[in-house]
Amino acid sequence: MEPIIKVNKLSQKIGRKMLLKEISFEVLPGECFGVFGTRGTGKTSLLHILAGVDRFTSGQVEVLGSNIRKTEKFKHDLGLVTQERSLFPDLTVAENLDFIAALKKASKADVCEMIERYELNELLAEPVTVLDTMGVFQRLSLACAMLNSPKLLIADEIIKDIDLYSRNLILRELQQFQAEGGTCVYAFSNIAFCGYMSKVGWNYNSGMLY
Amino acid sequence: MPKRNGTGRRNFIQNRVDVIMFSQSRAIMKRELSYMWRDKGLRNILLIVPLLGLLLFVGVYSYQRVDNISTAIVDLDKSSASQQVITGLKNSQDLQVIAYPNNYDHLRELIKKGEVIVGVVIPENYGKDVALGHQTKVAVLIDGTNMIYATNATSAILTVTRTLGAEIGIKTLIAQGIQPNQALEAYQSIEFREEAWFNPTMNYAYFLVLAFALNMWQQCCTLTSCMNIIGENGVRSWLQIKASGMSTLKLFFCKSLVHIGIFMLMVLPVYFFAFGIFRFPLTSGWPLLLLFTFVFTISLHSLGTLMSSISGNAVNATRFGMVIALPSFVISGFTWPLETMPQWFQPLAWILPQTWFFQGINYLTFKNQGWEFMSRYIFVLGLMAVLFYSAAALYAHSVKTLFRKG
């Protein structure tokens, strides 16, 4: 079986700090790969590299069969939920969904489906900047990430510090995604979530332990 | 459902792709428009400032020329000849005699306080010297601190003194026994007649108001276009755009279209008020003016985009924008001739689109220069746009490549 993600001797140096040093791993289709580490260990950097939003210093990274330095085609089948609030702050919930759907070439029906699944009906007219809880924001972020029905979902601290209702809803959707054959890479800093993962890589001292 | 053959299917897919591509572009443009509209500060600046500038400057320059320049005369002679000088000065349209100080020091004080701009000192024995044909000196003192006043005052004084000089000269010749008609002919044999072309009434409003309003407009446009790239990739939502895999070329092309369209919409009311309501001269006609403005807008936007590309953050982009937008009008040579600037500096001035624009706008409004003349300006502005956009893209690309290599 061809791996969905193939990372070989990946290094990332920002300024003088070596964030990732020659790490290598593979993620197979349907797997849920957890990247565990404390704050500042390079989890977000690794996920951003895998999502093709950050460049890297050296090594080879293949995602969905594409060398990510050479092509961006793999992004058509990718969903990304960031740790920081990265939705468009000048737009409302509905406009964010519409705009990201347009960016990802998703249809209006996909938008409606996500609104239903993530229970966003009541919030559509709200600007995202006034969404009061992180849980609601993460539901919207995940809905946006899922608009293009991705094969690979990359999510950074998606259920950290969120309300119980949103957490259960998100976990339910993530399980559904995996049950349908989706592959995930999650970054988390709470060891309790290890149980949800197929395998866990521990970001430690610029390297990775499995 | 009818089955599609190979060609039909390809056409269907192509149509579907076209619809998706178009909807993506439309979504980007719609979002950019809504962004500019919802940002109240930006909206007010873009909609109101250039028009407000025009109205403000129209008010400031409503008198259109400088006359009635306050003048003081010190008559130390108090003769009939000195009275003639005073009458000549009082009859001048440009001067208004408002004070008769007793001595030179008092006059100096009045000029120093700013109560008068021009001082004329008629010396003692003036009448006697004139009658004897001796040389005499009338001192004319002008407050040089305000250049506009000083230039106009100098011109007004010259007109009066030239007339007075001729009158006295003719009288002197007659006193020496020359026939009056011969004396008159001697002074009229050469006539230097001044005639201002293209702005015959030397109207300050025609010269300055539109240019000042357009200067405010270009400043707003430059600062807005400086956010073109950094306003997108300098914020967190850039992650969404990057992760979507959409073409950045398409993104910035669509954003630029919106910006350029908005900039053109901003300038139209300014032109409408200037030429339609206030009746400023527009000798070249609307089509050429609009074409010229359109190409300049693209060129200006490309310069802003380049600034945006090389800036590390939005604050720096604004700083770069201000460094260009604020002095560009002065550098353009519109108010202070380019030829009088240092030789080494002049090529730098011509690098800016603003220089070509403000020079060109003068030709279009006053001198009715047609396509043949203006095409050079349009071509250069177009070329600048190509170069600046390319440099912006190259810079972004080279930084990207460097980063990739680590």
Write the layout of secondary structure elements.
The complex is a heterodimer of chains A (210) and B (406).
Chain A: E1 5-14, E2 17-27, E3 32-36, H1 43-50, E4 58-63, E5 66-67, E6 78-81, H2 93-103, H3 108-117, H4 134-145, E7 152-156, H5 164-179, E8 183-188, E9 199-204, E10 207-209
Parallel strand pairs in A: 3-8, 3-9, 6-7, 7-8
Antiparallel strand pairs in A: 1-2, 1-4, 4-5, 9-10
Chain B: H1 6-38, H2 40-60, E1 69-75, H3 80-91, E2 95-99, H4 104-113, E3 118-122, H5 126-132, E4 139-142, H6 147-175, H7 180-188, H8 204-225, H9 230-233, H10 238-244, H11 248-277, H12 286-310, H13 314-331, H14 346-351, H15 353-366, H16 371-405
Helix pairs in contact in B: 1-11, 2-8, 2-11, 3-6, 6-7, 8-11, 8-12, 8-13, 11-12, 12-13, 12-15, 12-16, 15-16
β-sheet strand percentage of chain A: 25-35%
The overall number of domains of chain A is: 1
Low-confidence stretches of chain B: 402-406
Q: How is the CATH topology of chain A named?
A: Rossmann fold
Described by its quaternary structure, the protein is heterodimer
Counting DSSP E segments of at least 2 residues, the number of strands of chain A comes to: 10
Give short descriptive properties of this protein.
heterodimer, A: 210 residues, alpha/beta, Rossmann fold, six-stranded mixed β-sheet, four-stranded antiparallel β-sheet, 28% strand, globular, B: 406 residues, mainly alpha, abc type-2 transporter like fold, four-stranded mixed β-sheet, 5% strand, elongated
Structure, described:
The complex is a heterodimer of chains A (210) and B (406). Chain A is 27% helix and 28% strand. Chain A is of the alpha/beta class. Chain A has a single domain (5-209), classed as P-loop containing nucleotide triphosphate hydrolases (Rossmann fold), CATH 3.40.50. Chain A has a six-stranded mixed beta sheet with strand order 6-7-8-3-9-10. Chain A has a four-stranded antiparallel beta sheet with strand order 2-1-4-5, with helices on one face. In chain A, strand 1 and strand 2 (17-27) form a beta hairpin. In chain A, helix 4 runs parallel beside helix 5 (164-179). Chain A is globular, with a radius of gyration of 17 Å. The mean pLDDT of chain A is 90. Chain B has 406 residues and is mostly helical. Chain B folds into two domains: 32-60 and 204-405; 69-188, abc type-2 transporter like fold, CATH 3.40.1710.10. Helix content of chain B is 69%, strand content 5%. Chain B is built from 16 helices and four strands. Chain B has a four-stranded mixed beta sheet with strand order 2-1-3-4, sandwiched between helices. In chain B, helix 3 (80-91) links the parallel strand 1 and strand 2 (95-99). The longest helix of chain B has 35 residues, at 371-405. Chain B is elongated. Chain B starts with 5 loop residues before the first helix and ends with a helix. The A-B interface holds A 11, 13, 48, 51-53, 55-58, 69, 72-76, 78-80, 82, 84-91, 95, 98-100, 102-105, 144 and B 20, 23-24, 26-28, 31, 34-35, 38-39, 235-246, 400, 403-404, 406.
